[in-house]
Amino acid sequence: MIDNPPALTIHRGHRRPDPALVARFRGAQTSHLVDAMQGRGALDWRIKPLDPASAFAGPALTAYAYPADIVAMFGAIAEAAPGDVIVLGCDAFTGTAVIGDQAAGMMRNKGISAFVTDGLARDRAGILATGLPVYCMGIQPNSPALNGPGTVGAPVTLGGVHVRPGDVVVGDADGVVVVPADRLTEVLAALDQVRAAEAEMERQVKAGMTLTDGARALVAAARIVQG
Description:
By secondary structure, the protein is an alpha/beta fold. The chain has a single domain (8-198), classed as Ribonuclease E inhibitor RraA/RraA-like (Glucose Oxidase, domain 1). The chain is built from seven helices and 13 strands. It has helices at residues 19-24, 30-36, 71-79, 101-110, 124-130, 184-206, 213-220; strands spanning 8-10, 48-49, 56-65, 85-89, 97-99, 114-117, 120-121, 134-136, 150-152, 156-158, 161-163, 168-172, 175-179. The strands form three sheets. Strands 1, 2, 3, 4, 6, 8, 9, 12 and 13 form a nine-stranded mixed beta sheet that branches. A two-stranded parallel sheet has the order 5-7. Helix 2 (30-36) packs across helix 6 (184-206) and helix 4 runs parallel beside helix 5 (124-130). The chain is elongated, with a radius of gyration of 20 Å.
């Protein structure tokens, strides 16, 4: 009998972001990051953490898995460096899971920061026990195959966002945001401004503000119809 090895393509050599820049994204609120990128950058709202207390930031190691297959997921584990975030696209396939508790445990052992997919997971309790932040579209007990084809280290699109290896990925209870690798310094500068503005707004709201001057002007300029 002729063995047919699984089809897996691995692209190597992508540039990794400066760890000092990546560290500055840790603890960033995803909504603040989106505001720092002109209102864009968040993945599809359905990609949420299995544990709402999850939070992470790290460089993306991208992978693409054909529907119902996880060769690419294991290839990504093998290629990942400590601190990486595995970002696995699977065309939002919902017939099987693309990660379970044992794979999550292996990722945690490898030092991977988080796993993000537009697919599904299984073994929720076991995944939570590993402590690995897992962001997915939901839970499905069906098991996948190990045949391929799959790809690791090439750009992928999932959740409506194009993700390249080395982009910085940030997650919290609200979802996941992708910061392009060539915009890290720019976004960090804008993030500081957003945080300052949000802090001032919070102060004014706590002091009793009901509308900002801008919102009040918008309402005043509206066409009002008496009903």
